[in-house]
Amino acid sequence: MRVEVPAEKVTSERKSITRAFANQARIPGFRKGKVPQALIEKRFEKDIAEELESRLVNQGFQEGVKKQELKVITITGIEDRAFHPDDTFTFTANILLAPDFELPEYKGITVQIPRVEITDENVEQALENLRQRFADFNDIENQPVEMGGFAVIDYEGYVDDTPVAQAFPQAGAYLAKGEDFWLNITEQSFLPGFCADLVGANVDDKRDVEVTLPDDFPFEALRGNTIKYDVTIKSIKEQILPPLDDELAGKIEEGKTLDEIREAIRDQMTRERENQNEELKTNQIITWLTEKLDFDIPDELVHSETQRQINDIVQRSQQSGVAEEELRKHEGEIINNASGQARMNVKTSFILDEIAEAESISVNQQELLQQINLMAAQYQTPVKKLISQLQKSNGIGRIENQIRVRKTLDFLRSNASVEEVEPPDETETSA
Predict the structure, then answer these.
(1) What separation in angstroms does the CA of 14 have from each of 19, 27, 56, 79, 182?
(2) SS3 annotation, the chain
(3) Cα three-residue angle 392-395-396, rounded to 5 degrees
(4) How far is CA 325 from CA 99, 336, 431, in A?
(5) 334: which residues sit within 8 A by CB, 6+ positions away?
(6) CB-based burial of residue 143 (10 Å sphere; 0-12 exposed, 13-18 middle, 19+ buried)?
């Protein structure tokens, strides 16, 4: 953006700055505020020029953005600053602009969510899970692993003779290796088909277990791969369940009866299903919007978000025990995954920001302070200290943006066209 500040504006600002210096200057032989202007201009020539240039650039930039109705993300540089013989001042501002696109009709987006229906069977299954937490376990010496029983195992997975932790450092640590891992021997436990190959094994036996991961496996990179696990049976356990009565209820929550526990479970499961449905709404709305809109995304922002994604992946991998050398081997894969997610994040951010502006969705001071108070309580930090830290790192702006995004998503969900569908099969829900 090329900006020219007219001569009268330059002259006016120069006089204003010179007066300010004159009022504050302390020069021997003159009373404060009575120093001749010519002396002030000579004595503080460099300081006045710097202040004048700074003001003209700032004011000229703001007026230019307002006049041209530009959506500026950031200033990448100011160049070609120059005062001219006719007293005008010019400069060029290199700016990064938000992409220009026209929003589709975003009210009434159709979303499908399962009907919230908590059955008695759901409640009893959840109660049974709680009951199992209070079970006792006895070692079994002369009996092999059986379906429905329990075993404690060590295991390590390999893909084509390469440890999973090395071949797929982004995979969850539980897929790669485990020690003293308690396993309920059922078809649904751990990975499909894993437990079946352990049936009949005795304590100290070693088993080779092969598992081929399905096409809908959560970690996409491992879909269709066959993992070979070296498994050692450390011990075999017998589960002793406590009676399902008020005494157990009191252990689950002091002072509660079994019927009260059942009611609490139903309430909690209802809230969880409702929260899941809200998440489903959000995902479907964002998918609909991103598929409807196609626009150029600033590479600078994608690069920055990609680096943030990479840092998160590396940090999680290192916390899982993956060596730096192994991360380097998969650098290309990590970058590709991070780049794709970064592009989607940036695109979504622009769309939500445009909707927030169109609907005049903003964040007031009370909402901002409430969020900061919650953070202070979470981090066990005095509010004033946290605010000071946030101000130094531009954290206030990030929190304000997070609240604005949350309110925008709330707006989109509340204005969506909701279609209820049948809830998932009970066995899938319990699994």
Answers:
(1) 9, 20, 10, 21, 78
(2) CEEEECHHHHHHHHHHHHHHHHHHCCCCCCCCCCCCHHHHHHHCHHHHHHHHHHHHHHHHHHHHHHHHCCCEEEEEEEEEEEECCCCCEEEEEEEEECCCCCCCCCCCCEEEEECCCCCHHHHHHHHHHHHHHCCEEEECCCCCCCCCCEEEEEEEEEECCEEHHHHCCCCCHHHHEEEEEEEECCCCCCCCCCHHHHCCCCCCCEEEEEEECCCCCCCHHHCCCEEEEEEEEEEEEEEECCCCCHHHHHHHCCCCCHHHHHHHHHHHHHHHHHHHHHHHHHHHHHHHHHHHCCCCCCHHHHHHHHHHHHHHHHHHHHHCCCCHHHHHHCHHHHHHHHHHHHHHHHHHHHHHHHHHHHCCCCCCHHHHHHHHHHHHHHHCCCHHHHHHHHHHCCHHHHHHHHHHHHHHHHHHHHCCEEEEECCCCHHHHHC
(3) 100
(4) 39, 18, 37
(5) 169, 170, 310, 313, 314, 327
(6) exposed
CA distance 321 to 338: 20
CA–CA distance from 420 to each of 109, 112, 244, 265, 286 (Å)? 14, 6, 35, 23, 19
Nearest to 202 by CA among 233, 179, 159: 233
Which residues, in sequence order, are CB contacts of 38 under 8 Å at separation 6+? none
**Model confidence pLDDT, tens digit, residues 301-354:** 999 899 988 888 888 887 777 777 777 878 888 888 888 889 999 999 999 999
Give the total residue count for the chain: 431
Q: Report the DSSP pairing between strands 162-163 and 72-83.
A: unpaired
> Within 13 Å of residue 116, how many CA atoms lie on the same side as its CB?
15
pLDDT tens across 213-272, in order?
988 888 888 888 999 999 999 999 999 999 999 999 999 999 999 999 999 999 999 999
Q: How many CA atoms lie within 13 A of 40 on its CB side?
A: 22
Residue 278, CB-side half-sphere exposure with 13 Å CA sphere:
11
Tell me how far CA of residue 377 lies from CA of 370, 380, 383, 388, 404, in angstroms. 11, 5, 8, 15, 21
Q: What is the reported pTM?
A: 0.68
Structure-token pair, residue 130 = 């709680």
Residue type at 113 in one-letter notation = I
